[in-house]
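Before the break, one more example. Copy the sequence into your notebook; we will annotate it together after we see the structure.
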Amino acid sequence: MEINRSVLTVVLIVVSSAGLGLAGDIVHQDDVAPKRPGCANNFVLVKVPTWINGLEDNEYVGVGARFGPTLESKEKHANHTRLALADPPDCCSKPRNQLTGEVILVHRGNCSFTMKANVAEEAGASAILIINNQTELFKMVCESDADVDIKIPALMLPQDAGSRLEKYISNNTMVSVALYSPKRPAVDIAEVFLWLMAVGTILCASYWSAWTAREVAIEQDKLLKDASEEILEVRGAGSSGFVDINTMSAILFVVAASCFLVMLYKLMSFWFVEVLVVLFCIGGVEGLQTCLVTLLSCFRCFQRFAESFIKVPFFGAVSHLTLAVCPFCITFAVVWAVYRRISFAWIGQDILGIALIITVLQIVRVPNLKVGTVLLGCAFLYDIFWVFVSKWWFHESVMIVVARGDKSGEDGIPMLLKIPRIYDPWGGYSVIGFGDIILPGLLVAFSLRYDWLTKKTLRAGYFIWAMTAYGLGLLVTYVALNLMDGHGQPALLYIVPFILGTFITLGKKRGDLKTLWTRGEPERPCPHVQLQPLEHRE
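Here is what the structure looks like once it is written out:
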């Protein structure tokens, strides 16, 4: 059962090694679209609240053009202006109806965007809304010979929004709109809570892993003192329930993760996300069950149930406490899967995700600093390649597209911790991939196990420094995220140098680097071997 669980764990890590901070970009730089004086705006998302016969109605989102003036950033400064239909609808020639400051709604096609804007401005419009011929938004650029001395804002609406507004006006309904493009706050409190969740998860998992390692070490020391060599050999042949990563598996992990990521990118669809949801629920149930059983076992009233076992087909010996907790965990995961599209479903996703991460860090272990360096080094290159370099081959960031769940109809893949952005006028979520917690967490957990086995104090050990390095690396990631106007950032780009740099520098300074790099644990004396010379003297 332990091996099956570890295989599922590796699969989930591979799936969940996604980028961080995908809140949805509101500013889109485009180095391909030409820029020149009068045609140098960034492509920004614009909010278009509407009023039908004076009553507030739906709010739509469009994208601003490369040309024209910039829009207000605050809704209270945006004017409520009546919306009028263009006649002819394409606005490629002077409108037949006289405009007196209305916003004009026109169809895309038959002439350039700049020509439509110039015609609308000459007719007296205060702004122009262009209905796209498809549901997606399109970036409106300038032609090389176009007149870009345009004094009115221009933006594009998706086809469904434009058609709805057009239908209202055709039925002689008075439609008013306001145009504004709010800016995101420099820091949202969601990022603070997400940082605390990531750091807290690694902290809990590290102490659990170190406590388990110390219990195993104490048990082995007792066997070394009291048992015969035959018993030791039998004991050593048994399974410890842990999976130690080696150098080759660390490299193969990144290769497998890359292949799986490309498969996700190519096959991303509604049904494929459903498969990921099922995988996530299975892993979440296992993680939640493991965490609850371990937590409840600490209480005296549950210890009897935790220590009594029953044989279950296909699963072997299972404790009565596990059987009691399992139905709750399954129900929790199923309820989340069914209702995962409601506004507060992120809470259930985070609970299942944190439980899974803690369980993974308890099962999978880095045996020494050498393996940890190879694993994080490969993950570092993996993150950079699939976030930045992949744009040259696929014309978009593969990592970000997969994490957002584009073309799937879902709000991102489930293997993410997410918190809604509370003070962001654009809404969305701040997210972090499981891989950005699990992979650095493996080395942080190793540092605490080493400290406890060598009986180092918190200040003289490596854990406090590794934990601080992770926290600082994640903090720098959020700073970079905000400096890049919300563009998704590869967290490991910042976290890995902090952790490895701190660990290697400190180990070299203290003279522990050789032991950390090769053994990963202190040498323990063998009492029954030491007693042999005394027996010979007799």
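Confidence is low (pLDDT under 50) at residues 18-29, 230-239, 528-538. The two ends are 49 Å apart (CA to CA). Try to locate both features in your own notes.
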